[in-house]
Amino acid sequence: MKLKAIVASQGMSVAPALVFLLPRPADPNLTVAPEMIGAELDNFQMVHRRLDAIYTEKCAYLENSNKKSQAEVLSVQHTMLLDQQFVDGVKENIGRGYSAQAAVQRESDSRCTFFESLEDPFFKERAFDVKDLCQRIICELRGEPYHDLAVLDSEVIVVAQDIPPSVMSTMDAAKVKGIATMAGGKTSHTAILAANMQIPAVVGCGESLAVITDGDLVFINGVSGEVETGFDEARLKEIQPEIMRYQSRQAQLKEYAHKITETKDGGKIALLANIMDSKAIDKLLSVGAEGVGLFRTEFLYMDRKALPGEDEQYEAYSSVALKLAGLPVIIRTMDIGGDKKADCLSLEAEENPFLGYRAIRISLERVDLFMTQLRACLRASADGNVSVMLPMVSGIDEVLKAKDMLEQAKESLRNDQKKFNDHIKLGIMIEIPSAAIMAEELIKQVDFFSIGSNDLTQYTLAADRQNPKVANIYSHFAPAVIRLIRMAVSAANNAGKLCGLCGAMAGDPLAIPLLLGLGLKEFSVNPAALLQTRKIISEIDMAAAEKLGREALQCGSGKEVVGIIKKYFGKLYDEYGN
Amino acid sequence: MYSMDTFVKNPTGLHSRPAQKLVQLSNTFTSDIKLITSQKSIDPKSIFSVLGGAVKQGTKITVQAEGEDERNAVDTIVRYIEELND
Q1: Taking CA atoms, what residue in B is nearest to A121?
Q2: Are A122 and B7 inside 8 Å of each other by CB?
Q3: Which residues pair with A180 in a beta bridge?
Q4: How far is B1 from chain A (nearest CA, A)?
Q5: Is residue A126 part of a domain?
Q6: Which strand (E) or helix (H) includes residue A88?
Q7: Is the model's pLDDT at A306 over the cut of 90?
Q8: Which of B23, B46, B54 sits opposite A118 (nearest CB)?
């Protein structure tokens, strides 16, 4: 059996399965004779005290062994156990004649139903904590052990419907080589904890996992999202070297965490990351990102009824600027429209949203909204190295208007006696072909460019990047796209200004030598691609890259471009080309 | 009775860890305390009430207390919420 599901935590491993089963729930309708109510209450209280002690001890142990996220899961459950509302609820049920087990089960069911009714997936997830805690109480009441994975004799892959949070937090992580669950999604507790504990995990596999029994050899591919079992010796001989290759590649990448980003011949390149909030910053700094090349702000506007105010935006921007402590952050003003919708802007549906009312086009019309965002960005510039970038610029008029508004925003902040950096840098995205064609004129008006390769590709080739039927046309190796990139990079380089690239192309291994050859000096990639990008850059010889760049500009098709990449960078092509 | 307004600024809102610490902190006061949002009234002494409030970044909260240590309770809780930082 081989299936493909959701990668929750990266990694690869093969080991015998351990099927984890949840204890059976209690019958919520079981009642006791009236004279037994007192004894049931005592029983519950005794178990409650015992579990209080167990949770206290386990939390302290996890805290002391520096397993913070695991400790957090258990201490939330511990707080739930001690919650007066919860304890009163159980006691009330017992008072009405239910057995202690039934009373806990009823409390569990009603609280779970409530959490499950919440919209936000994070808060919805708390139902698992309630269920898990109550299951433990019920096992204690029964006098049964609560099976967890704290002590394991040999290496296993845990296969389960789902794994309760308390079991995840206390499992013997050194022995658990992988996790496959039927339930769960990318943000489920199992996914988050597995990633934290660096255990390869594939979730949301569905009922097909039910065929797996204890001891079956299982291969988890937490890169492709595949789970495989029932294979023969020959297949195992293929799997093992695949895992080895993957692991040695990961180990190599780690070495790049604190290296500077430079080409083989020592040319310095700036390597930044794309983010949407301050959560990713610690991770970024730990892999040596040199700043944030794209801070997407549209998420502040999505999924809400009211517009985000100036203070709220200032907090969001400032927290990033402060955490980066002087490293640059480029805040891109709101890019709503196209495929991103925002209720708080009450925009009308359009026939052609990608060619319609979007991003800077909205901002320049809705002066109130844009002023609020510019003022928030400016205020954050007093707290760190902040630049502002305009999305979807099609021509010079938009730039001039936005610059005018930026000056107005500064003036209003001066009147309000708020601090900001008067020399804040303003840049634009190059993602509409007209902007690339007019790059020489545009660069005179701004401090920097950043190429948005995804939109630039789809607009140049008129191929919707989300439509699989035209996926064969959509390619950032198309010579038309490459020529436009070259125009933007040259215009900036000739003017002594910086041109970066923040689309998916910057993290595409095959595109890296090409971009270097076209003269690009700044790459901004998704955090997960950062180390790989640094490693690839370090292996590129600039003389070969420049030859590649020149020849690619003469190509007639995207296929030819890839052919030339293969010619000059065969090793790279062999590793990433398929 | 004493009250003060504040905003939840941290990106993840009152999720597990902040919620649980808020409950521990609130239980150190004898006053009756309420956190009032435009949607709900939350009892900060109960983890179920706090998590059930599903408070996200950007939510405006009025912290209200009534009792002997009301002023200290409100000040301490407001400060706690303002200093949250994921």
Answers
A1: B54
A2: no
A3: A159, A202
A4: 24
A5: yes
A6: helix A84-95
A7: no
A8: B54
A277 neighbourhood in chain B, CB within 8 Å: 11
Instruction: Compute the average pLDDT of residues A522-544.
Output: 93
Residue A300 has pLDDT above 90, yes or no: no
Give the whole-angstrom CA distance, residue A216 versus residue A178.
13
Distances in Å between the Cα of B24 and the Cα atoms of A15, A76, A507, B83 are 42, 11, 45, 16
Active-site residue identified among A134, A139, A377, A502:
A502
Residues A235/A32, Cβ–Cβ less than 8 Å: no
Model confidence at A65, pLDDT cuts 50, 70, 90, reads confident
Q: How far apart are CA A42 and CA A44, in angstroms?
A: 5
Report how many Cβ contacts below 8 Å link chain A to chain B. Answer: 66
Residue A145's CB: how many other CB atoms inside 10 A? 9
Residue B86's pLDDT band (cuts 50, 70, 90)? low
List the single residue in A with minimal CA-CA distance to B14.
Answer: A123
Helices A558-568 and A542-552: angle between axes, nearest 10 degrees = 160
Contact predicate A29/A102, CB 8 Å: yes
CB–CB contact B51 A123 (8 Å): yes
Whether residue B17 lies within 8 A of chain A, CB to CB, comes out as: yes
pLDDT tens, position by position, A77-123 = 999 999 999 999 999 999 999 999 999 999 999 999 999 998 887 78
Tell me the per-residue pLDDT of A161-202, one tens digit each, with 9 for 90 and over.
989 877 888 888 889 999 999 988 776 778 878 887 889 999
pLDDT in tens, A400-431: 999 999 999 999 999 999 999 999 999 999 99
Domain of residue A62: give its range. Answer: 22-142
Indicate which residue of B10, B15, B54, B66 is catalytic.
Answer: B15
Mutation target to probe the A interface, by most A beta carbons within 10 A, among B7, B28, B48 is B48
Q: CB–CB of B59/B8 below 8 Å?
A: yes
Chain A contact for B19, CB < 8 A?
yes
**What structural domains does chain B harbor?**
2-82 (3.30.1340.10)
The pLDDT, as a whole number, for residue A559 is 96
Q: Is residue A353 part of a domain?
A: no
Indicate the SS3 state at residue B83: coil
Nearest CA in chain A to B44: A83
Q: How far is A89 from chain B (nearest CA, A)?
A: 12
CATH classification at residue A123: 1.10.274.10
The ipTM, to two decimals, is 0.91
Chain B interface test: which of A315, A319, A383 (most B C-beta within 10 Å): A315
A159 forms beta bridges with: A19, A180
CB A343 within 8 A of CB A298: no
Active site residue A423: no
Which chain B residues have a beta carbon less than 8 Å from that of A308?
58
